[in-house]
Design brief:
The chain is 74% helix and 0% strand. It is mainly alpha-helical and 195 residues long. Helix 2 runs antiparallel to helix 4 and helix 4 runs antiparallel to helix 5.
C-alpha cells in the first residue's frame, strides 16, 4: 500500500501547467497572473488550448492515482491515493513545492471512484460558500469543510468517507496556505505605504 501512496504523490507532482506553459509560451506559470500553477491561470495567461490540456492532465493525475490504488492489496487504497496525488499537485517536489490548488486532481479521483454526485455537491457547496464569503480561497475552504459533513450524513461506506475527508483536507490546506500568503503580502504592502 505504501508504494501506491508514494507513486500517487509523484504522479501528482508531474507539473502539467509548468511544462505546458514552457512549451507554448516559454515562461514560468508561477510568475504569471495569480502565480498559481493551475489550469485557470494557464488559460487566462497563456491560452485556452494549453489551459484545456493542463486541466485534462490535472484531472488525469487524480484518475490514474485511484486506478493505481486498485493494484494494492488494501481495499481502501484507491480511496486514499487521490489525496496523495492532490498533495503532489499542490506541493510538487519538482517545483520546490509550489504547485496548484488540487481541485481538478480531486475531480479526477472522484470520477475514477464513480463519485460524480460528490463532485456536483462539492460545486454546489462552493457556490453557496462563495455567495457568503465573496472570496475564492475562503469559499473553497468552507466547501472542503462542509463536503465531508454532507457525505457523512448520507451514511456512505467508510472508504468513500475516507476519500472525501483526505482529499478535501489536501485541497483546503493549500487554500489556507494561499490565504496566509496573501495576508502577508497585503501586510507588507501596507507597511511600505507608511511614511
Amino acid at each position: 500500500m505504501l508504494w501506491a501512496l508514494g507513486l500517487a504523490y509523484f504522479i501528482g507532482s508531474v507539473p502539467s501547467s509548468f511544462l505546458l506553459t514552457r512549451l507554448f509560451d516559454g515562461r514560468d506559470i508561477r510568475e504569471l497572473g495569480s502565480r498559481n500553477a493551475g489550469a485557470t491561470n494557464v488559460t487566462l495567461n497563456v491560452g485556452w488550448i494549453p489551459g484545456l490540456l493542463t486541466l485534462l492532465g490535472d484531472v488525469g493525475k487524480g484518475y490514474v492515482a485511484a486506478v493505481i490504488g486498485r493494484f494494492a492489496q488494501a481495499p481502501i487504497c484507491p480511496y486514499l491515493t487521490p489525496a496523495f496525488a492532490i498533495a503532489g499537485h499542490n506541493w510538487p517536489v519538482w517545483l520546490r513545492f509550489r504547485g496548484g490548488g488540487g481541485l481538478a486532481t480531486f475531480i479526477g479521483g472522484a470520477l475514477a471512484l464513480s463519485q460524480l454526485p460528490m463532485v456536483v455537491v462539492g460545486f454546489a457547496l462552493w457556490g453557496i460558500s462563495y455567495l457568503l464569503c465573496r472570496n475564492h480561497d475562503k469559499s473553497a475552504v468552507l466547501a472542503c469543510v462542509l463536503l465531508p459533513v454532507v457525505v457523512l450524513a448520507s451514511r456512505p461506506p467508510f472508504k468513500v468517507l475516507a476519500f472525501t475527508t483526505t482529499s478535501s483536507f489536501a485541497v483546503a490546506l493549500k487554500r489556507l496556505q494561499s490565504i496566509r500568503q496573501k495576508l502577508k503580502l497585503a501586510k507588507a504592502g501596507s507597511k511600505k505605504e507608511l511614511p
